[in-house]
Automatic annotation (TrEMBL):
Stated name of the protein: Carrier domain-containing protein
Organism: Umezawaea endophytica
The Carrier domain, residue ranges: 1-81
SUPFAM superfamilies hit by this protein: ACP-like
UniProt xrefs under PROSITE patterns: CARRIER
InterPro entries: ACP-like_sf (IPR036736), PP-bd_ACP (IPR009081)
Organism domain of life: Bacteria
Gene3D superfamilies, per the entry: ACP-like (1.10.1200.10)
């Protein structure tokens, strides 16, 4: 049984700090500061999210605008938590 971990901005910040995404992400980056996550970074972020937290999401194109800040990503992930249908 997997323990459900709350997805917080700290969790998102940790995942985004991966050297393959944002190797020099400032620790004090504001939660609403704009981020530019490229497609390879997004793929790696989603892979790490699934690997570390057993949370698999496949955002639709129209939801990708929500991946522009720590808060936006966190809010999106908490909206699509397991237990809801993700079949699109």
């Amino acid at each position: 049984m997997t323990t459900r971990v709350e997805i917080t901005t700290a969790v998102v910040r940790e995942l985004l700090s991966d050297p393959k995404i944002f190797p020099e992400l400032p620790a004090d980056l504001d939660e609403d500061a704009e981020l530019a996550l490229d497609s390879l970074g997004l793929v790696w972020f989603l892979h790490q999210l699934g690997t570390r937290y057993d949370l698999v999401v496949e955002p639709e194109d129209e939801h990708l605008t929500e991946f522009g800040s720590l808060r936006g990503i966190t809010d999106y992930l908490n909206r699509v938590r397991p237990g809801e249908s993700h079949d699109g």
